[in-house]
Amino acid sequence: MTAEELHVSVDQQQCQGVGYCERVAPGVFQVGDDGRSHVIDIHPPESERAAVEEAATLCPSRAIRY
Q1: Tens digit of pLDDT for each residue in 8-48?
Q2: Of 1, 17, 28, 41, which sits with the fewest C-beta atoms within 10 Å of its C-beta?
Q3: Alpha-carbon distances of 21 from 1, 2, 3, 10, 32, rounded to whole Å
Q4: pTM for the model
Q5: Is 31 exposed, middle or buried (0-12, 13-18, 19+ CB in 10 A)?
């Protein structure tokens, strides 16, 4: 059985730009000049799964989907 490929997104309407996601998964998320988080790798490798899951859990606005 193979793992399902990650497809990461951030709902820009919900994002508050707190930045927890960038701290735990800097290869996947970056807070932009607009103060909101942006996905810099929408299909990160499986090795980033735990960090993406943690980022989604820590997100106070629940803006991260994967």
Answers
A1: 999 999 999 999 999 999 999 999 999 999 999 999 999 99
A2: 1
A3: 29, 26, 22, 10, 12
A4: 0.91
A5: middle
